[in-house]
């Protein structure tokens, strides 16, 4: 729907916006003489146009509502009719036959639960069921009717039944009923076994005279032969499979009949496996039919045979039984190996030949363990492993690959057992050496090592030769070194030598292994040889700790070997490791040597420090002459220096001095490019932590304990001077030297901290220490803040500020017990803040300076008032004076540094709030508020101030004056609410009027809402809470008059907030007056009035709705 909106014509007259008189569009206002106002004329025209559009909108809404209702009704009738049509069509629809189409598989059309059988399948089922019925009949006959006929009759009946069943399969097979034929053939062969059982049960032909196992073996063998021949006769595969299955228990039954032992049973099972191998050989090892059964039965039988032989070997009590069991085990492995050879399967030959090797070794080892004579089991097994290794080495040359790998791997597995025994003996001997060297540093030098005997050394040689025979030549050096290490570890225990000989042997082995390690061609070889050296050296060192002299000798040898080897090699990873190990052993060698010489702990500590100094000098020398080893020497020097907090503990000298000296050494190593990476930083961090640990008590007394004084501010209790030693002062100064070597700015806080420490060490009287901390901290803080910007200063500026700030804060906290000292400390803080504010390098620093200075000034003012004995009100005036000084500073900064003035102003206002809070009484609070209002009013008079800032100060001054008035009323105990609310409402009204004049678009609720709320809400609350004893007649009358006046003024000014608020107040007042006389009104009057009102509204509902809409529009048009 597209309509053209009619444009309302220009009105002939309009109210003059200046004087309110009726003006014309042609001549203007006749009262004030102003020309026609186009905007006022446009407002009147648009009002008329809006009224017309509103009428059209109401009509359009009513039309849309009616059309939507009609559409819903029509849609419901349409849906009902459509449902009836569908129901009728569905009921009358005829049943049509399926449409013709392409042929469909009958199997797809048949239901899933219905399965049709073919003729052949049905016949097979019938045959199978018939055969089963025959078997059941035979079983019943045998069990029930057997005794009712003679022996001849029984035999004839069973033979006839068996022959009948076996005669059917050939005919079934010729008709294609293979499944039925196989089933009946299996039934017939089963009946043959039943015939054998029947013959045994009636002692046919005296068969019970033989052993049951032998008779069962004969029946099984005969049945198997019959099944094999029958299968070939009828051409069915099933009888052949049955023959193989029936033949499986023949040899075990024979073993049972012969009452064979476990070895015999193993041989019988191996024979079964051989039978299956023969079947597989006949069928060319094809895994199908009887071949598949032969695979399964042969695998199970050879596995069981081997397990039975192993169990028998484990429980053999003599060499003979062990030999028999071992022979059975080898036979089982030989059968498996023969099968692999016949099958010509190389992978199978590889595995079975390896198993045969292991089986032969197990058999020989089991037999050898039961032989009488000397020698441990390790030596016997090692000898057998050596023989096996030699045999395998000879055989492998003649065997094709990969078959030859099988015996080789098996031989390696065999050698593993004695090798593990040797390793266990070596570990035991090494442990015994360490045990004999106990207690630490106090073991007897004549104590011998107990453990394995000399035969273990022969076992080591045998195992070593076995590995040499089997492994490639490139492993021989490693094997020889390993054997040498094993011999070195075993020798003290094998020959009952003193415990310190283990250290000697270990160092000899290490010395011999250095050269092969240097010649290693691969990383793996180098790592193995180096690990071997580390192992024997570690054992030698641990064992040598039994006596200080022995341990010192071991460390000295380590130093000589390490440094010497490194100097010979000159480069490479071995040189790096050896140089590092040699240098690491220097300090322990010196310490243990001096301990062996019974030198005091203090001398030992000094000697270790001398070693640290020498190592640092060596690091500098290595940089010039041995550049390749400079990192290693430097690293060891750093490590020894970093350990100073620990190794300095036993000495009698102050450990803090050693730690500080170590810091100097580390700093000397850090200069230039001598030390790179994170190691120097880690060493410095460790030493700093150690220094804090050794000087923590004194530093805590200076930096932490002063904060405890905050719990007793102005108590007058003078704290005692902290106890500090001169060693701590010296350590701080030495640390400052180290810090200066690392970075010059870092030395400043340490030097500054040494000043209060020195005063405390000298026993200076309080408050010398806290005030010195304040002075040093603030001086350093100011210097770090105002220092000229350089890369070094910028890198350390924040850290210096934090460090000096911590010192100053501790000093300020320590000065609080006495007001005079606290006044001095905060006065210094005020001066420092002013200096930073004036000369600070960046804006944040200057702002922090001004804020800190002004806050300190406030504290100074309050402390001065306390010292002067002023009462609470006087102290508040002094604090307010400090706040006024801050405002004066803000006056100056606002002209030159506006961004810094904001923080100062905030601090000044906070100080004024504090002054108000500590004023002590409403009267003094009124004075403080009034004086602050004067300060703010004066601040608003600053020349060149922006209007917004000036307005904010004026408003703040007005608010303070209002607060002062309220406090004054409270001091005079004034109870009239309007005395409090009327000034606030007037001020809010004036502020709203000013805001409307500056921003005409501002809504009247925003401009005048706070003033109206302040004027009416408290009075309404008082009237609502009044009772009969306090009727509040005058207040109710004045409230109604004030509400009416606001309503009229708002209507004249066309302002929404006064109209709504005044009307609401008038209505509420009228309702309250009505409530006062409610009991005087008859009960029927409210009901009658309510009824008439509802009837009237119902009669003219649409008209009332339009009236409400017009009222809403009229109110919404108010500004």
Rg calc: 58 Å
Q: Could you give a short account of the major beta sheet?
A: 2 strands, antiparallel
Helical percent range?
A: over 70%
Number of domains: 7
> What is the number of strand segments?
2
Strand content of the residues, in percent?
Answer: under 5%
SS summary, helix count: 42
Mean pLDDT: 80
> What is the terminal separation in angstroms?
34 Å
Structural class: mainly alpha
| Outline | flat
Poorly predicted ranges: 1-5, 95-126, 1094-1102
- Side by side, the strands of the main sheet go 1-2
Quick structural gist:
Helix content is 77%, strand content 1%. It has 1119 residues and is an all-alpha fold.
Describe this structure in words.
Keywords: Coiled coil, Membrane, Transmembrane, Transmembrane helix. Residues 43-77 form a coiled coil. InterPro entries: SCO7613_C (IPR058062). The chain is mostly helical and 1119 residues long. It folds into 7 domains: 1-89, no CATH class; 120-256; 260-372; 373-499; 600-703 and 721-743; 861-974; 1026-1117, no CATH class. 77% of the residues lie in helices and 1% in strands. The protein has a two-stranded antiparallel sheet with strand order 1-2. Helix 28 packs antiparallel against helix 29 (768-786), helix 29 (768-786) runs parallel beside helix 31 and helix 33 runs antiparallel to helix 34 (898-917). The two termini are 34 Å apart.
């Amino acid at each position: 729907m597209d309509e053209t909106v009619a444009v309302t014509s220009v009105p002939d007259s309009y109210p003059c916006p200046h004087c309110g008189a009726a003006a014309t569009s042609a001549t203007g206002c006749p009262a004030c003489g102003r020309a026609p106002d186009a905007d006022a004329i446009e407002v009147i025209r648009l009002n008329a146009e809006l009224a017309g559009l509103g009428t059209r909108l109401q009509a359009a809404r009513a039309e849309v509502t009616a059309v939507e209702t009609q559409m819903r009704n029509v849609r419901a009738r349409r849906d009902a009719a459509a449902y009836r049509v569908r129901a009728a069509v569905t009921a009358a629809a005829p049943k049509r036959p399926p449409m013709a189409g392409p042929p469909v598989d009958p199997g797809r059309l048949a239901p899933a639960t219905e399965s049709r059988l073919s003729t052949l399948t049905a016949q097979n089922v019938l045959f199978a069921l018939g055969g089963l019925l025959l078997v059941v009949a035979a079983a019943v006959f045998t069990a029930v009717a057997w005794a009712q006929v003679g022996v001849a009759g029984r035999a004839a009946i069973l033979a006839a039944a068996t022959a009948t069943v076996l005669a059917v399969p050939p005919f079934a097979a010729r008709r294609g009923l293979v499944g039925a034929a196989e089933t009946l053939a299996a039934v017939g062969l089963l009946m043959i076994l039943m015939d054998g059982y029947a013959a045994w049960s009636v002692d046919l032909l005296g068969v019970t005279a033989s052993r049951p196992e032998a008779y069962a073996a004969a029946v099984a063998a005969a049945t198997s032969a019959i099944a094999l021949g029958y299968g070939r006769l009828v051409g069915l595969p099933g009888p052949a499979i049955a023959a193989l299955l029936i033949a499986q228990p023949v040899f075990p039954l024979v073993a049972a009949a012969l009452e064979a032992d476990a070895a015999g049973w193993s041989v019988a099972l191996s024979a079964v496996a051989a039978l299956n191998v023969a079947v597989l050989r006949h069928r060319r090892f094809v895994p199908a039919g009887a071949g598949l059964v032969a695979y399964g039965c042969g695998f199970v039988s050879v596995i069981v045979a081997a397990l039975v032989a192993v169990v028998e070997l484990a429980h053999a009590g003599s060499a003979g039984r062990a030999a028999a069991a071992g022979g059975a085990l080898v036979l089982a492995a030989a059968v498996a190996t023969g099968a692999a050879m016949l099958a010509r399967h190389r992978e199978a030959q590889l595995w079975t030949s390896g198993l045969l090797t292991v089986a032969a070794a197990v058999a020989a080892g089991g037999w050898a363990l039961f032989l009488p004579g000397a020698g441990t089991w390790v030596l016997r097994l090692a000898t057998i492993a050596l023989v096996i290794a030699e045999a395998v080495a000879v055989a492998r040359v003649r065997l094709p690959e990969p078959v030859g790998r099988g015996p080789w791997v098996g031989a390696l597995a065999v050698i593993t057992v004695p090798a593990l025994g040797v390793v266990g003996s070596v570990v035991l001997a090494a442990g015994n050496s360490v045990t004999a060297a106990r207690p630490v540093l106090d073991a007897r030098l004549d104590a011998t090592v107990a453990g394995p005997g000399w035969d273990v050394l022969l076992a080591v040689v045998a195992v070593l030769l076995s590995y040499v025979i089997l492994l490639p030549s490139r492993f021989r050096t490693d094997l020889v070194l390993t054997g040498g290490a094993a011999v070195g570890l075993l020798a003290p225990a094998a020959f009952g030598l003193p415990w310190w000989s283990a250290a000697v042997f270990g160092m000899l082995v290490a010395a011999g292994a250095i050269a092969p390690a240097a010649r290693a061609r691969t990383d793996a070889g180098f790592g193995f040889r180096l690990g071997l050296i580390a192992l024997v050296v570690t054992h030698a060192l641990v064992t040598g700790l039994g006596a200080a002299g022995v341990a010192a000798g071991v460390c000295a040898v380590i130093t000589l070997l390490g440094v010497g080897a490194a100097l010979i090699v000159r480069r490479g990873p071995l040189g790096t490791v050896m140089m590092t190990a040699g240098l690491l052993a220097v300090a322990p060698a010196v310490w243990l040597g001096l301990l062996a010489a019974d030198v005091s702990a203090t001398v030992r500590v000094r000697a270790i420090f001398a070693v640290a100094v020498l190592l640092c000098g060596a690091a500098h020398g290595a940089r010039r002459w041995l550049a390749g080893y400079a990192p290693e020497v430097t690293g060891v020097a750093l490590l020894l220096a970093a350990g100073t907090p620990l190794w300095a503990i036993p000495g009698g000298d102050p450990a803090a001095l050693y730690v500080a000296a170590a810091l100097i050494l580390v700093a000397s190593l850090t200069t230039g490019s001598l030390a790179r990476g994170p190691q120097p930083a880690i060493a410095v961090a460790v030493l700093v932590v150690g220094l804090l640990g050794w000087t923590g008590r004194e530093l805590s007394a200076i930096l932490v304990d002063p904060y405890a004084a905050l719990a007793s501010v102005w108590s007058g209790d003078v704290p005692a001077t902290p106890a500090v030693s001169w060693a701590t002062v010296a350590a701080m100064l030495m640390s400052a030297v180290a810090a200066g070597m690392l970075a010059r700015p870092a030395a400043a806080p340490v030097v500054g901290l040494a000043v209060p420490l020195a005063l405390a060490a000298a026993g200076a009287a309080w408050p010398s220490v806290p005030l010195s901390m304040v002075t040093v901290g603030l001086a350093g803080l100011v210097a770090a803040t105002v220092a000229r910007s350089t890369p070094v200063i910028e890198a350390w500026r924040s850290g210096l500020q934090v460090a000096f700030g911590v010192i100053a804060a501790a000093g300020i906290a320590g000065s609080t017990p006495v007001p005079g000292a606290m006044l001095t400390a905060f006065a210094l803080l005020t001066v420092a803040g002013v200096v930073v504010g004036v000369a600070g390098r960046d804006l944040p620093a200057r702002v922090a300076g001004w804020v800190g200075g002004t806050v300190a000034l406030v504290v100074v003012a309050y402390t001065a008032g306390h010292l002067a004995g002023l009462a609470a009100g006087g102290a508040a005036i002094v604090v307010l004076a400090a706040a006024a000084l801050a405002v004066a500073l803000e006056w100056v900064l606002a002209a030159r540094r506006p961004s810094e003035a904001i923080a100062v102003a905030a601090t000044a206002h906070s100080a004024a709030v504090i002054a108000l809070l500590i004023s002590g009484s409403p009267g003094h609070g009124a004075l403080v508020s009034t004086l602050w209002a004067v300060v703010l009013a004066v601040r608003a008079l600053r020349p060149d101030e922006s209007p917004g800032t000036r307005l904010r100060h004026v408003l703040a001054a007005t608010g303070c004056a209002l607060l002062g008035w309220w406090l004054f009323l409270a001091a005079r105990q004034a109870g009239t609410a309007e005395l409090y609310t009327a000034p606030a409402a007037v001020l809010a009204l004036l502020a709203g009027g000013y805001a409307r004049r500056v921003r005409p678009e501002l809504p009247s609720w925003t401009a005048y809402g706070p003033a109206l709320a302040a004027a009416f809400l408290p009075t309404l609350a008082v009237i609502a809470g009044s009772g009969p004893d306090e009727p509040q007649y005058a207040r109710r009358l004045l409230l109604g008059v004030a509400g009416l006046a606001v309503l009229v003024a708002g209507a004249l000014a066309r302002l929404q907030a006064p109209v709504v608020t005044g009307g609401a107040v008038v209505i509420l007042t009228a309702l309250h007056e009505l409530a006062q006389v409610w009991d005087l009104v008859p009960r029927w009057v409210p009901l009658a009035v309510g009824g008439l009102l509802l009837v009237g509204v119902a009669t003219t509902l649409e008209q009332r709705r339009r009236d409400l809409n017009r009222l809403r529009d009229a109110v919404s048009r108010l500004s």
